[in-house]
Every structure is written in structure tokens, then in C-alpha cells.
Amino acid sequence: MTTNDNDFLAKISNIFECNSKFNIDGTTKSYYSLWDKKCNTNDECPFYKANIKYNNERGGCKDGFCELPIGIKRLGFMKYDNEGLNTPLCYECDNMRDFDCCNKLKNPDYVFANDREERLKLNMQTIIGQLDYIHY
Fold first, then answer.
1. 38 and 50 in contact (C-beta within 8 Å)?
2. Contact 75/34 with Cβ under 8 angstroms?
3. pLDDT tens, position by position, 74-99
4. Is residue 134 part of a domain?
5. Which residues, at least 6 apart from 28, have a Cβ–Cβ distance to it below 8 Å?
6. Which of 41, 117, 46, 49 is nearest to 80 (CA)?
7. How far is the C-alpha of 115 from the C-alpha of 92, rounded, in Å?
8. pTM exceeds 0.70, yes or no
9. Are residues 59 and 88 in the same domain?
10. Is residue 35 a contact partner of residue 13, using CB atoms and an 8 Å limit?
């Protein structure tokens, strides 16, 4: 007898069952699941007002999703992956090959989608570092 993973989706009732790699009966899940919910307020979002170099509302809650800096991989409404190639982009990073640049900065200036006009009005940098291509 085989069990359909969709049968378990309706029965998942807590964070442990959701985040586990195994179904309730101990079999391996054939899907990935992560406990998450829609955001209701800006303060629930991890990058809300993370750019402290200028007054802004970036990183807040929009239609149940937290706004994330460019480069970060969205996993859900508020959950994200910012490891490896999924690291955020920052305006202060000159070397685009240094994927960990933003994490090294005390107060990173994250790049958000469509932030150019807002930054131009404040005479702030709008161009990120250049990628130094290897020529063979």
C-alpha cells in the first residue's frame, strides 16, 4: 500500500511536522514544506527598515509577502534563503564575486527592486558594483 503525500498535507498541524523531512508515518516526504504564514504588519518582516542610511519603508509587508532585498531567494511569505548564491546585493559592495559582502557590513545598504527613483531624490548611489568577468 502506498500513501499519497497530499493526504498528509491536510493533517500537518504544527511546525515540527511541516519542517520535517518525513511524513507522520515516518516515510520520506516527496515534497519540501516550510512552516510560514502571510505577514500582516511591516514589523513582522526581517528586512523592514534594514536600510538605515536613509528614511524609508523598504522590506515591509506587501499583500502578505515581506519585501526582500534583491539576491535573496524567497521560500514563502516571510521565509527566505540567504546562503551561498542567494545572498543579498548591497550598494557598498564593489566586488560582485564576494557573495558574502553584505553580511560583512555593519549597516548594509540593501538593493531593493525599484528603489532607484527613491534613491535619486536623495542623491544616493543607484548602481551596484561591477562583476569582474574572467577573460579566457
1. no
2. yes
3. 988 999 998 888 999 999 887 777 88
4. no
5. 21, 22
6. 46
7. 15
8. yes
9. yes
10. no
